[in-house]
């Protein structure tokens, strides 16, 4: 998620428009909404798992929508942020469901999951300096020690 936030560098709504007064403070970039990704992926997984229980699925879908709405209501995200976040969460559910079925059909391929996870983790980890500081936060510091 942080990879996408650092890639797009979309400021919070109150930074872009002074008329917006957030009810809660938030730091960092806003696009995509991490809360929406988490809600859609977690509740979406439960929907996928318990799809025959209609009332339960409706409740989980409502929780996704309420999470998205709450992030807009308190002023820390735009509708674009939460919609793309929910879409990413749904893509996670679809991808996870596909992998689950694939591994059920081919159990000998289970070693590929940790290998792919390690490769993706290494590929998308932000670079660090030798002192352990993230380079994405330290390269913008002005010379002379100011903030």
Provide an overview of this structure.
This protein is mainly α and 147 residues long. The chain has a domain at 34-110. Helices cover 62% and strands 0% of the residues. The protein has helices at residues 2-8, 13-16, 34-49, 54-73, 79-105, 112-124, 135-138. Helix 3 packs antiparallel against helix 4 (54-73), helix 3 runs parallel beside helix 5 and helix 4 packs antiparallel against helix 5.
Task: Please provide a brief summary of the model.
This protein has 147 residues and is mainly α. The chain has helices at 2-8, 13-16, 34-49, 54-73, 79-105, 112-124, 135-138.
Order of helices and strands: HHHHHHH
- Largest sheet composition: none
Structural class: mainly alpha
Average pLDDT, all residues? 80
Rg, Å, rounded: 19 Å
Euclidean distance between termini CA atoms: 26 Å
Spans of at least 5 consecutive residues whose pLDDT stays below 50 are 137-142
Percent strand equals: under 5%
Shape: flat
Strands, total number: 0
Number of continuous helical runs: 7
Bin the helical content.
55-70%
Describe the protein's topology.
Blueprint: H1 2-8, H2 13-16, H3 34-49, H4 54-73, H5 79-105, H6 112-124, H7 135-138
Helix pairs in contact: 3-4, 3-5, 4-5
Which features does this protein show?
single chain, 147 residues, mainly alpha, flat
